[in-house]
Amino acid sequence: MTAKAGDNPDTLMTLATVFCLRNLRKTMCYQGFGNELCLRSDIFLPSEICDKLVNTYMELLHTHSNFEPEESFFQLFSDPRSTRLTRVQLREDLVHDRDLEAIRKQDLIELHLTYCNSLSSRSLRTLTWFQETLVSLCLFGCNHIFYRKGGAPLACNEDSEEDDEEGHVSKRALETNFNFQGFNRLRLLNLGGLPDEVNAETLLKPLKSLTSLDLSNVQLLGTAFLSQWKDRLASLVLYNVDLSEELICTVVELVNLRHLDISRESRRTSKFKMTKRILTAIVQRLVNLVSLDISGQIMLDNCTVQQFEEAMGHPSIEPCKSSIYPFQDLKRPLQFLGLYETTLCNVTHIPAYKVTGSKNEDQVLNAIEAYTEFRPELAHRAINQLFDIARIQHCSQLLRALQLVIAALKCHKYDKSIQVTGSAALFYLTNTEYRSDQSVRLRRAVIQVVLNGMEQYQEVTVQRNCCLTLCNFSIPEELEFQYSRVNQLLLQILEPARQDESIQRIAVHLCNALVCQVDNHHKEAVGKMGFVKTMLNLIQKKLQDRMCDQVMEFSWSALWNITDETPDNCQMFLNSRGMNLFLECLQEFPDKQELHRNMLGLLGNVAEVKALRPQLLTPQFIVVFSNLLDSKADGIEVSYNACGVLSHVMFDGPEVWSMEEPKRDSVMEKMWEAIQSWDVSSRRNINYRSFEPILRLLPQSISPVSQHWATWALYNLVSVYPSKYCPLLIKEGGMSLLENVLELESSHSETKDMARKVIEQCESFKEDPMETNQGLDVNYEQRG
């Protein structure tokens, strides 16, 4: 059997790391004073393990809702004699000043801080502890790290813990006493999003040996300072930096550049226009260039060859054949060329191995890959284009597309635009057309990010997209690994009284499917979450609106499923005015056959619970059930279920029948008449997982009509669907009970005849198990 896309298992290192992080007190740590987490004294961990622990901890916090942060987690790595950290990646508001201070004695080589807006200038002070070892530093989007809390100077407040660690910096006092003096080993620096008040030139002046610099979205007051690295700088990113002739002249002096990014967001206004002359100068002067990004730039004049020449031959990456004139001067094809949101991405011959753009699927996927981490505004648009490809055309790189969208949703959990477009793309990428190519592991990863989106956003579009995507999965099988979580989320969606109608319909459908054919302990657990009450609230609302729609019918169907062989849920139904709602629905919607079938199926489950039957034994309810024996709604289903309810009530004997009217005998007579009117070859809209509630009605003489109903039910099921129900009846000991029916004097002759036929059918099936009678149209969405 060949492996499916995305089926590679986690490494043992990853599995062990996650296990330790989820069980810190049972593996590496013990509970210290004041509930503080402390590392065991016999633990000594190398940097490979420590780095993995910290980085995985951040990932779990960011992507797993059931993973709780440990306030003293970073304190575990405070002593370099027992733990060694070298490469750490921290992101977003989960990181505080105290966390960096806890690891200040470590000899960090790489420190990546991304969107860490809870950090203040206290963390700038902490950075100086790493100045002798730090080689790579990222402060992308850490907008508050250059501001003091409460206006305290950097040099003071050395040991103060009075700052509000949990909030952002409220009093914006710019820190002016910090620069990179002493960071002599620093080679790679990302200052993307540096506040306008911070002078980049002053901040960077002490750094003499930079080889990579990212100044995305930074306002540059001057450009000459870049020349100090003209012999060293290999990578320069100036995304959304206001370009000028002066800046371009400085850039082309950086002759050792291998990667240059002068792209911009196309919707951002700019006075600068990219010309053929400027692009030619970049290509001719920067001869070592292997990667160039000019995405979003507007070309002032024509840089491409004539259309009739451009269309000649198969697409080529050879520079000499380039459809873009300036690139004909390249010595070799570029490894990467960013042309996203430019007209240049549409030409035929592009001299690059990897191109971002919107011309085709490959360019779009390259754009998502290149821009997800630091440019969500571009990734959002590229994912939207992937959505169109998956919806209208066909996605040929399914595994890559899914992995990129999943990564984007994980990375930008709090970005609504990414969540909307990403969840919409996932809906089309997981539908039936692509399903056979996807592994269990990959589909589980999709489910995880979809549930993350549902947790984070109550917004209608995200909720609808996520619910629709879940409908692409086999339910409940594929969702069982997140069973409790997905049910909880769906019930939360259904709580608001005036929820969006389409989301309500999808969510109720999912709830119904989730409680269909699962073990009773799952149903009991979901019942305790408030499932029964939520469904009854929806029914109450629909009654008020006098509307019997899919939500109403699905809600009763879900109640039918969740009460199957679960007495506690049946009790909840009765305690929550369920019977009153049943009567009101019956009166308000007398002609809704599907509704009647679902309601009677549910009440059949209630009637199977001996302790609850007295609550059904009232004149009002017995008259209703008796009248429904004559119903022809949905074939025999309503009449069959009404008779089932009465069969269990009758089984308790005449002594419990305390009412004057209707008479017990007259109701039993109507039951006999109803059963004799049914066609025993009827196909059914019902699915039994167990015959136990039926079988208990066989060996008794208290209520022959109940015995007859049970025997008829068995004969119908084993004759119409032998391959499903003959083995079930044999397995549950039904054959011996049917033999007992034949021996009882109280059993009616019609009942005995039918019991013999059931026995003969099962015996025949045992001899010829290939007989199926093509009974494949059972509705498996009902009763368990």
Which descriptors would you attach to this protein?
single chain, 784 residues, alpha/beta, 10-stranded parallel beta sheet, 32 helices, 14 strands, 45% helix, disordered C terminus
Task: Give a verbal description of the structure.
Helices cover 45% and strands 6% of the residues. The protein has 784 residues and is of the alpha/beta class. It has a ten-stranded parallel sheet with strand order 3-4-5-8-9-10-11-12-13-14. It has a two-stranded antiparallel sheet with strand order 1-2. A two-stranded antiparallel ribbon has the order 6-7. Helix 10 runs antiparallel to helix 11, helix 17 runs antiparallel to helix 18 (501-514) and helix 20 packs antiparallel against helix 21 (550-562). The longest helix has 19 residues, at 749-767. Mean pLDDT is 89; it is low at 154-170 and 771-784. Belongs to the zyg-11 family. This is Protein zer-1 homolog.
Kindly summarize this structure in a few lines:
InterPro entries: ARM-like (IPR011989), ARM-type_fold (IPR016024), Armadillo (IPR000225), LRR_dom_sf (IPR032675), LRR_Zer-1 (IPR056845), ZER1-like_C (IPR055142), Zyg-11_UBL_adapter (IPR051341). Keywords: Leucine-rich repeat, Repeat, Ubl conjugation pathway. By secondary structure, the protein is α/β, with parallel strands linked by helices.
Q: How far apart lie the N and C ends? A: 33 Å
Order of neighbouring strands in the sheet with most strands: 3-4-5-8-9-10-11-12-13-14
Largest sheet: 10 strands, parallel
Helical content band? 40-55%
The gross shape turns out to be: elongated
Radius of gyration: 35 Å
Strand content: 5-15%
Number of helical stretches of at least 4 residues: 32
Spans of at least 5 consecutive residues whose pLDDT stays below 50 are 154-170, 771-784
- The tally of strands reads 14
Protein name: Protein zer-1 homolog
GO cellular component, one term: Cul2-RING ubiquitin ligase complex
Domain Zer-1-like leucine-rich repeats region: 202-342
Domain Protein zer-1 homolog-like C-terminal: 409-763
